[in-house]
Known about the structure:
Blueprint: E1 9-15, H1 19-29, E2 34-40, H2 44-54, E3 58-63, H3 72-75, E4 85-91, E5 96-106, E6 109-118, H4 122-130
Parallel strand pairs: 1-2, 1-3, 3-4
Antiparallel strand pairs: 4-5, 5-6
Amino acid sequence: MLNTKINQQRVFVVGDGQLFSDCVEQIVTSEPDLVVSHAIYSNEPGFSNIIKTIQPDVILVCESGTRDIVPIRALVPPKSIAIELLIVIVRLRNNKIDIYARPILAAKKSMYRHEQIISRSLNDLVSTLRKKPHEQ
């Protein structure tokens, strides 16, 4: 019998408290191999502390407004969490998914590889959340 916990991804959903982030969270929560926690973004220190405590595999940012809700890459200190991390940003205003995979080490700095895909279905989002950073 396979241990399903080994294959689970810890997904941390960050939203602005709007309907869009609630709907995305419900979709992601329905996937049995994704362990989901969530928060409404309020301030940088509080957010950084949550990330350090949860240590997610994926941070899923749901933006429903016209502005970015959080400068997410700047808030994740390189030494605070696991070496492999995906930051996935979805927006209500378009069907582009931004994916930032870590790490790339250059000049002693940890940088993110950026990729953007066009989502044609919910399956595109869910399959993105299941990937490991080195698969990007």
